[in-house]
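Hey all, sorry for the wall of text incoming. These are the two entities for the joint prediction.
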Amino acid sequence: MTTPILRIEDVHKSYGNLQVLKGISLTVHPQEVVVLVGPSGSGKSTLLRCINLLSPPTKGRIWLENQDITAPGVNQDRVRQRIGMVFQEFNLFTHLTALGNVMIGLTKVRKMRKNEARDLAMFELERVGLADRAHYYPAQLSGGQKQRVAIARALGMDPHVMLFDEPTSALDPELTGEVLAVMQKLASEGMTMIVVSHEMGFARQVADRVVFMEGGVVVEEGPPQRMFEQAVHERTRTFLRTIEYMRQAP
Amino acid sequence: MEFVQDLLTTFNFIVQGLWVTISVTAVALTTGVVIGIVLAIARVYGHPSLQVAVTVYSVIIRAVPVIVIIFILFFVISRYVNLSPFWAGALALGFASGAYQTEIFRGALQAVQPGQMIAARAIGMSRLQAIQSVVLPQALRLALPAWGNEATLVLKDSTLVFAVGVPEILRRAQQVSARTFEPFLAFGVALLLYLALTLITTQALRWLERRYRLQM
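and here's what came out:
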């Protein structure tokens, strides 16, 4: 059994009186693709933001490659360099070109020299199929292109784990394909990925494990085959059936 | 013929104040920008006690007429520090403008989408790096129209330093007028000079705005 790359142990997260995560425990292995599904408000996005310490847990511990990143005194900025995140709203830096967006992390955070940074940035843009748009500003790109640049930007930091927070939810249906294709390619290249998504097709085809969350807890998890066909919990079955039905409806 | 001669003499005398006006404005604007950006960052990202301090400065200074601030700085500060009227006046103007610019840059910083900071942190930037490399560049572009407005106001307020004896355009116009008893000519020239300065500044600002417009 390989050592887990990520271990989430009894994580709780509250915002004032509102308790969003009520004790999540999850283990992720290297190169695993985990898809988190669940209704709105179940805490999926909150969990992602706990993992990369954007919004650290109020209780519980998280281990990244055997380092307790929730321990006091941990340099959170450095931890975030090892975890890439892709957002639903892209959050590309509007004052920079696509190339600039990928380069800025390389020059400012990884302290690379400009030429090295430019080469690596172009490499990542090629990886997501956008080398020809390198000098375009985000406002000049389509939603799918913006998200692919966002993926390139995250990849430039050489992350050990990639977190995707509903990466295609803000996209027109025709544009989701190009982003999902890039994600599938990443998965086949061995990237460890945790994806919050409603894209059941992606979950079925690419996920190693599907985790169903509701009300701040993990209800059930398992390989996509079992989850979609023979889920143990009634609630899991109902939810997955509804999602699939909605996506197939004309 | 004599009229033209008078006009030229008057103009030559007053226009020597042009450089002084420009210098006072430049010093004041620069001081104001530094104060404005630093305090705005403190106000938006700083410790609560720092936020309060900045708000107090901003509210008080903006409540007081600029000329009063200039007088206070000139008559009070000059007692302890050896400051020429030019520097006392220009720095006072900068100090006053700083309060207005703090509000301008504060608004601009807050107008930058929160997702920008989040994404910057997500790639491992510290808060300071994120402010410097991601938020501030965007905020400065957003601030340009309002800042341009403040710049033209500072240009016009630069006349106020005449009251502490700085030989800028207005002061020189006064001197000529007192000597020649031709106030219309003197202040007419002053008016034209200010008009020219403002028009040039406005054009320059418009060019800047177009060049650095943020495509959203």
